[in-house]
Amino acid sequence: MDHAAYRRWRAAKLSGFPAAIEDLRVDVGDPARLTAGEREALIQRIRRANMTVYRCAGATVDRDALRRFGQALGLLRLDEHLCAEEDGISQLRVSEGGRTGEYIPYTDRPLSWHCDGYYNAPEGMIRAMLLHCVSDAVEGGENALMDHEMLYIALRDTDPQYVEALMHPEALTIPANTRDGTVIRPERTGPVFSVDPASGALHMRYTARGRNIRWRDDPITAEAVTLIGHILDAPDSPVFRYRLRPGEGILCNNVLHNRTGFRDDRESGHQRLVYRARFFDRVAET
User: Fold this and answer.
1) Is residue 257 within 8 Å of 136, Cβ to Cβ?
2) Fewer CB atoms inside 10 Å of the end CB: C or N, the chain?
């Protein structure tokens, strides 16, 4: 490890890190037609915290607008995964049965801490993600977000061995996804922290789920995983909490995030709907 380079990077990161979620907000007139000022404001917040919250006032935001929004920010390659629609964008809402109903994002149950695509192959690394709220729940559905670079700093400052263990190529294994004896996705093994070969940026692969995962059988790895849980739950950790309202969205370089459970009102037709797009690209820095 290059400790001098780390200290310089750490100092720059901490000096520019925002104090509150309000510092990450950007008003956007039409996401399909970003102005130069809006684009720069979004990128500036991504540089500081790997995330931004945008708010569209009055504009109609459909799936095509979200694709064009991403393209303006360098997000060109969508992850057309199992539950995505033909355009690569998922509709996150409570699903009764069917393929999507098997997965927690398509239920009203809480989602634990994770980075998207932790079960993907290295060539399918999810570098950025967009969540856009079309309609919110009657209650609940709040997201918590933590910049994975801040978690890395907390771990390395405690003990560099924790980072070394989490960068081991066999640190985390996600067993195969099978259905009726057919392998839908093979077993995936890889590090938690890695350096993205495409950009040189820090990437994180993580899930807090307790079942159907295997951590490397190593005392330092076990300590590191326990510490991650403590950091994410600590009241003084730099975790941002935000409940998206209709017309608002989160754009990020696949930071750690979770979601509380929520309640719809089916009788009145009030149902939470969030569009999700996952990208193989990071948000452009210029």
Assistant:
1) no
2) C
Cβ atoms of 282 and 201 within 8 Å: the answer is yes
> Is residue 284 situated within a structural domain?
no
Alpha helices in 100-188 (DSSP H): 148-158, 160-166
Q: What is the CATH number of the domain that holds 271?
A: 3.60.130.10
With bands split at pLDDT 50, 70 and 90, how would you rate the model's confidence at 195? very high
For residue 160, what are the domain limits?
Answer: 3-279
Share of the chain residues as helix, strand and coil, in percent rounded to the nearest 5: 30, 25, 40
- At 243, list the tokens: 């409940």
Round to whole Å and give the CA distance between 168 and 201. Answer: 17
Cα–Cα distance between 87 and 80 in angstroms, integer?
Answer: 8
Is residue 189 within 8 A of residue 101, CB to CB? The reply is: no
DSSP lists the bridge partners of residue 134 as none
| Element at 27 (helix H, strand E) | strand 25-28
Cα separation, 168 vs 220, whole angstroms: 11
Name the region of 139 (left: φ>0; alpha: ψ -120 to 50; beta: rest): beta
pLDDT tier at 1, thresholds 50, 70, 90: low
Query: What is the Cα–Cα distance from 163 to 155, expressed in whole angstroms?
Result: 7
Backbone angles phi, psi at 262, to 5 degrees: -150, 170
Asked whether residue 47 carries a pLDDT value surpassing 60, the answer given is yes
Contact criterion met (CB below 8 Å) for 119 and 177: yes
200 found inside a domain:
yes
Residue 165 lies in a domain: yes
